[in-house]
Each structure stands twice: as C-alpha cells, then as structure tokens.
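Agenda item 2: adenosine-5'-diphosphate complex prediction
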Amino acid sequence: MSDIIQLLPEAIANQIAAGEVIQRPASVVKELMENSIDAGSTAVTLILKNSGKTLIQIIDNGKGMSETDARMSFERHATSKIKEAKDLFSIKTMGFRGEALASIASIAEVEMKTRPEDEDMATHITIKSSDLIDQTYCQAEPGTSIAVKNLFFNVPARKKFLKTDSVELKYILEEFKRIALAHCDLKFKVIHNDNEVYNLSAGSLKKRVINLFRKTYEDKIVRVDEETDIINISGLVGSPEIARKQKGEQYIFVNKRFIKSHYLNHAIKMAYESLLSDDQHPFYILFLEIDPERIDINVHPTKQEIKFDDERVIYNYLKVSVKHALGRYSLSPKLDFENEDSNLLDRSNLAAQGRKPSAHFSNTRASTTRTAPVMRNWQSLYSGLEEFSLEDDDSGAEQLDLTIPSAATGDLLGAFNPLENEVKAPLQLHNTFVVIQIKSGFLLIHQHYAHQRILYERYLHKLNKREELVQKQLFPISLQIGKDKKDVFADLIPSLNKLGFEIQAFGGDTFVVHGIPAGFQDNNLQEVIDGLIEQFIENKNLSISKNENLARSMAQSAAMKSGKSLTEEEMTQLIDELFACEMPYTNPSGKKCFLTFELKDLEKEFN
Ligand code: ADP
Ligand code: MG
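Presented output:
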C-alpha cells in the first residue's frame, strides 16, 4: 500500500486552530487587546465597523515589533512570551500560545503597522488567508495598529453562524469590559461605526465601574480588600439593592485574567446569605491574585476556566472576604468611599504593627490593646468562631474543616474605633431597641433579631464542628411533645445533643432533658423546644440543610424577645457579639438587625 499520510498545509492548519481560538469578532477583539496589553501599552483604541464583521482595528502605544518580529508574529506557535516548557507554569502575560495572529490571518485580511520606539519607520504588512500580500515601510507613531478586515471571508460556514450585528456587538463589548475592568490603569477608547462608545481615562476601579455600568452604582458598591499568605482578593461588590434577576454583572479575574467558575460564584452568593433570594444575582468585580504556580490556566483553549491547587481554600477565602465587605457596607454605606485613599479599614494600623489579617487573625487580634468598652468582650467571642465548614453548601463540595481568616469581623469592629476617644454607654428604648453611638452617627439595634443572628451563628458553628461542649447538668426535666411532632423531634435529638443538650426519649410523648448548653436559659424549656419544633417544620420549606434549619430554629426560638429589659452590661455584650458575627446585619431569615443613622442625613432632616 502506498503512503497516504501527509502534513496539513500551514494555511489549513491555521484555519483549524482558528476554529478553536476565533469563534466570532469578539474573540479577535480579545486576542488583539490582550496582545496590546502584553506589549506594555498605556492607551488602546478599538475601532469597529458593523460589529467587527467588516473591520476590527486595534491601535496601541506599546513596544511595537521589529521588522523580523512583525513577520514572525503571524507564524503559528510564534510567541515572545514563553521560551521553555517550564515557563508555562508561571505565565504572567495574557497570551502565550502564539496562535492568535496566525489564526486571525488565516481567516481574514490583516493589515499591521508596527514600530518600536527606537526605530524611525514602521513595518507595514498585509496578509490574507495566511498569504503575505505586501510588506513595506511606512510612517507611524510608536506602537502597533492591527486592522482585521472581512473576518471569515474564506470560511462561509463560520460566517453564516454569526449573529445579528447587535448581538455580535454585545459580545465584543462584553470582552472589552472584561479587559477594561482588569486594567483600570490604562486608557481605552471604543469607536463603533464612527460613534464613540467608550472613552475611559486611567483611574480607580470604582471610576471605571461607574463609566462602564451605571452612575447610580456609585454609592452602592463596596470595596473588597483582603491579603493573606495564599491569596489576595480585591475589587468591588454590589449591595443587595443592585442585585439583578439576570446573571451578568459578575466578574472574577485570576491574575487579571477573566475566568468563569460556578464554584467561586457560589462562594460569593453564599456570602450574601439571606440578603438575596435564589433568583437574585449580586454585582461583583473581584480580582484574585495567586501565585501562578498554584493554578493551571491552560485547561481550556480560550483560557476562561482555571484549576486551583486547592479550590476549597479559595472558596472559603472568597466567601469570607465578601462577607466582610458587605458587613462594612451595612454599617455605613458611605463609609467606604468617602475618601477612596484614606485608610478606613484600619489597614495602615495593621501594617504598622507588621501583621496581616491572616489565618491567625484571632490570636494576633487578642494581643492588640483596644480599650473601647464596646469591644471588651470580643476576645471570648472569637474563640470557636475561627473555623467553619462547607457542610451546608449545595455545591457538592466535600465537607471541610478549615481555618480561615477571621478578618471577616475584625475590621467591622474597627468601625467603632472612634469610640476609643469618647465612649457613650448604649441606651435601651422600649425594651426593644438598643442605641449605640458611632463616629458618623448612631446604630439602632433590634435586640431580638440581633440575638437571633448571634445564636444562629453560634449554633451553626457548633453543629458543623465536632467539639466537646460545655454543658450544664440539670435536675432532669421532662418534656411533653405533641403526637404530630414527636417523630420530628426524635429525629433532631442527635443534633440537639451535639449542641450541648442531653435529651433522651422516655417512651410515649415524653422526653427527658438531663443537660442543656451552657448559657442556655432553662426556665421555660418546654416553650423553647415547642417553638423550636414549630420553626423547624416551617423552615423545612426553605431549601436549607438540616443543620442550618436547626440552627435557625433554635435561634428563632431561644433568642431574647423584644420587651426584655437589658442592663448596660447585657447591651454591651449584645453589641459586641453581634459585631463579632460573620454577617451581623440581618437575622437568619433576612430581617435587618440594625439601622444606621448618619449625622449628615439627620442634619438635613432638620432643614
Ligand atoms: P501570543 O500572544 O500567544 O504570544 P500572538 O499570536 O497573539 O501570540 O502574538 C504573537 C507575538 O506577536 C507575541 O508573542 C508578541 O511578541 C507579538 N505581538 C502581537 N501583538 C503585538 C502588539 N500589539 N505589540 C507588540 N507585539 C505584539
Ligand atoms: Mg496573543
């Protein structure tokens, strides 16, 4: 038999590669803009005609290419970004496969002008279907301009599958947004059919968000900013008010590269807890910075999926960071951005003391000297809170006990810093609310909801942990549980015993309690347990785990009620404990635990 295997002609090989890398005009925009950024540009202009179907041109002021490089750049696997296989594991540039230009040139007509700063003339190259049409010199500013005309002109099947102009433009602008968000320090301009769509100056992320999304987001976004040994997380998250019914305004970047991850989206959604219903999607733009050696970005040809060495650790860090930011927002929505550069987070303080909010946060925190009475009990509150598990997540994550940074609540307490100078005792109103002064105004705390939150978190942590519990032994008390509820209750006994109860079935409707969790009031146990079972049955309609339901029901039933008079001591403890919570601002079912009143706003009311 004669030999039949041949090497594919280069142009066809390029077209096949293009099938993977270039699906639509938006893919060209992405690849070319990434190249401009890799080339160190500070300003990038994108010019489009007919949603990129006729023309996509990118003009940058980056380092340009020499004559030889300009020609080489269109060869497949031609890249200046990796030299050895090991470089693959520490990629810091956006591109590295050396495929984009070759692919684009195989399915379009490409005209490139490029000039390094130290050369007088630019190289001018025209390539069509991988064929060099023309190579000359021309006058041009330093940098590179690449015009891609008539995309897919020689791949009719592809061309046919392009969507309408408005849809293709949407795809392009989406790619553009991702890049513009990740590079706020660069100037960008977008011109479509001679109309300016965006003209973005270099500046803060917040400014960019306002320009790319809505001006009204200005005081509804809050900064996220956490540094740990493994990962840095920064960016902006939206308050629940700007959550939307459609997904979309959600961006996660890993080392400035946009990625898609249902798993990490889930972590963020979890941070909002009951603030959002299932069909509401929060706004966020989050940047994860992690050692490139700890991730694998090359699992997908267009590089939007990513593998982390330890995904579950990242999950928890992310969740806690977002919770932390939301907690700060709830204290004072305006606090965060009054002055972008000022250190409202007390970060300079942390830095000055040479410590980061790290996995040992609770310990380091204990060594600082905060004097405000409002915080005097916090040390004891931290113990036992520094671990939590993923048991209730429906993401399919295995259960995990993991030490995470308790920074979530640390800075929240920092908001009380102003009290260090002038301390006012809390005040109770109508045996229902507690008022506490903060620097910018005052908080009005709902004692019942606040206490529910505190107990809920405490119980949930205990249920998810296997720890010895402090228990108070009782002279046995018997409980009568209604016939219809008896089975539900019997089912709950092992979990209740985990919380510190010691309950036994005694036959019939009778149960005997020998012990209760330390700190639990035993004076109306029958009432509390009845309330607990009722709540538990009611909450079964919610899609929450059994542990979460139990923690919720216990909290709802056992929390101090409105109408209970509190001593100053008790009020202070309530405030301390509330703000040591991971999510202090609502009770487990989403009701606000406190309201914030700003002096500025109050002044206005009197005008
Ligand atoms: P990759 O980005 O994966 O290296 P590309 O095909 O996108 O592959 O680009 C090939 C090479 O061409 C790059 O490695 C870079 O050296 C050069 N290049 C492409 N675009 C530009 C640009 N705008 N400015 C300077 N150099 C560029
Ligand atoms: Mg590239």
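Discussion summary: The domain at 10-203 is CATH 3.30.565.10 (Heat Shock Protein 90).
Owner for follow-up: CH.
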